[in-house]
Specification:
This protein has helices spanning 9-34, 45-99, 106-129, 180-233, 237-264, 266-271, and strands at residues 131-132, 135-136, 143-148, 155-160. It is mainly α. The strands form 2 sheets. It has a two-stranded antiparallel sheet. Strands 3-4 form a two-stranded antiparallel ribbon. A hairpin with a 2-residue loop joins strand 1 and strand 2. The mean pLDDT is 86.
Length: 273
């Protein structure tokens, strides 16, 4: 074996291998501390791009589920108000039927009509004061939910319009129960109003079911995408721990090898003694 003092090739080789081992050990420590296999683009550029895309989809799906839930809340608020209006209309049917009978005194007819007009006023109040999150529920503006999975082809808008709710919209304005004839006319109008309210509640109920289904689908899809993203980016802790142990041992043996390689150069000095 030739001896040289200009270049210690074994030491250079040991140092190079030690640098490789140290870099790998540092990477395994980073994975352990972060729990992620991908901590920079250099770790897995393709995997990082896919994971970022999936995370964007997840963000869109989570917000879409929230949008659907908010719309459900608004529609259920409208349905609850319509349920109360149905109760008021049913009471109005009773009053109109009573007023349509003959034999009532003028004061009795007046009392019945007074209650009826109070019911109509309350129906109007419900229509104008019912709101969700500070926004009027009964208007010509649709209650809608925009849902998306983050792609151009995965966009859906689900909506329903409760519409303006008033005695005018229900064709009850001007109805009175002051006479048998007027009560008969009012009874027909009240019955038609009940039908209208029932139809609206049916439409709102169907839309609520659609929104709830959309929210469930969005939530499930979000969970699946989170799992897919985690499979790409999450570190396999058991494997990383094994690697970390291996690299720790290799670092120690590498340092020992480098020391021995440096000591070989001391052999030259013995030739000069």
């Amino acid at each position: 074996m030739s001896l040289s003092i200009l270049n210690n090739i074994p030491a250079l080789q040991a140092e190079n291998q030690l640098n490789i081992t140290t870099t790998a050990a540092n990477k395994s420590l980073q994975e352990l501390s972060s729990g992620s296999r991908i901590n920079s683009g250099s770790d897995d550029a393709a995997g990082l791009a896919i994971s970022n895309g999936l995370n964007a989809n997840v963000a869109a799906l989570n917000q879409s589920s929230l949008n659907a839930t908010n719309a459900v809340g608004a529609l259920q608020t409208a349905d609850g108000a319509l349920s109360q209006i149905t109760s008021l209309l049913n009471r109005s049917v009773t009053l109109a039927t009573e007023a349509a009978s003959s034999g009532l005194s003028t004061s009795q007819s007046a009392a019945i009509n007074t209650e009826f007009q109070a019911l109509l006023t309350q129906i109007g109040n419900i229509g104008t004061t019912t709101n969700f999150n500070g926004t009027a529920v009964f208007s010509a503006t649709p209650i809608s939910a925009f849902t998306s999975d983050g792609t151009t082809g995965g966009t859906v808008s689900i909506s329903a319009t409760p519409g303006v709710l008033s005695t005018t919209s229900l064709a009850l304005t001007g109805t009175v129960l002051t006479s048998s004839t007027a009560a008969t006319t009012a009874l027909a109008a009240i019955t038609a109003a009940i039908t209208t309210v029932s139809a609206t509640r049916g439409t709102l109920g169907a839309t609520v079911e659609q929104l709830q289904a959309a929210s469930t689908v969005d939530t499930n899809e979000s969970q699946n995408l989170v799992t897919a993203s985690s499979n790409i980016t999450s570190a396999d802790i058991s494997a990383v721990v094994a690697d970390d142990t291996k690299y720790s041992i290799l670092e120690q043996t590498g340092i020992s090898a480098l020391q021995q390689a440096n000591q070989q150069a001391q052999t030259v000095l013995k030739l000069l003694q």
